[in-house]
Amino acid sequence: MRAGPSAAGTRQAGYTYLLVLFIVAGLGLLVAQTGLVWQQAAQREREAELLVIGVEFSRALASYVKAGADHSLPESLQQLVEDRRGPVLVRHLRRIYRDPFTAQPIWGLEKAGGRIAGVYSLAQGVPIRQHDLPKELGGLTGEVRSYAEWIFRPIEADDGTAPGVAPGAGPAAARAGGGAAVPGSGD
């Protein structure tokens, strides 16, 4: 006995339905993969922006130290924007930049003797970029587990110390002095 036309059509519809399900599942996987790629691209872009801003902070700290007669580090980030130590107002930094990850002008501060020796992001997460980092990060080596490990300091002087930091007071000593999250005022 032969199957009628309606039985063949039902079987054909079942195969078409399966094919459509596989296509939808494949498209879902493609969209999910595209989302991951987009998320990584956005993170890389924010990292690049953080590195540019961090280098600016580092250069501003070095400029502040060089401009002062006492060669001291600033007590607040605001002093980088408005250095009033001399007869003329000096701006080592145009403004206190926002952290690209937190979108806030709040930074972690590495302190040395109550003064700012370095600036770092308070963002959570592991950086994608692990190598070829700027020299303002002090030759960071090894795997970086957090953006807070990207501490932007002024470039070292000839004696191997950071400007404004006494010889022998390395980064560990400076980090022990602070690291509080503060708004742009630095207090």
Number of strands: 3
In the predicted model, the low-confidence regions spanning at least 5 consecutive residues are: 165-187
Report Rg. Answer: 27 Å
Helicity range:
25-40%
The average pLDDT is 81
Distance between the termini: 92 Å
Specify the structural class: mainly alpha
Keywords: Membrane, Transmembrane, Transmembrane helix
Organism: Aromatoleum evansii (Azoarcus evansii)
Protein name: Type II secretion system protein
Describe this structure in words.
By secondary structure, the protein is mainly α. Helix content is 39%, strand content 7%. The chain contains three helices and three strands; from the N terminus they run ααββαβ. The protein has helices at 5-67, 78-81, 171-175; strands at 107-112, 115-120, 181-182. A three-stranded antiparallel β-sheet has the order 2-1-3. β1 (107-112) and β2 form a beta hairpin. The model is unreliable at 165-187 (pLDDT under 50). Residues 162-187 are annotated as: Disordered. This is Type II secretion system protein. Keywords: Membrane, Transmembrane, Transmembrane helix. Residues 162-175 have a biased composition (Low complexity). The chain crosses the membrane at residues 15-38.
Short description:
The chain crosses the membrane at residues 15-38. With 187 residues, the protein is mainly alpha-helical. Helix content is 39%, strand content 7%.
Brief descriptors of the model:
187 residues, mainly alpha, three-stranded antiparallel sheet, 3 helices, 39% helix, 7% strand, Type II secretion system protein
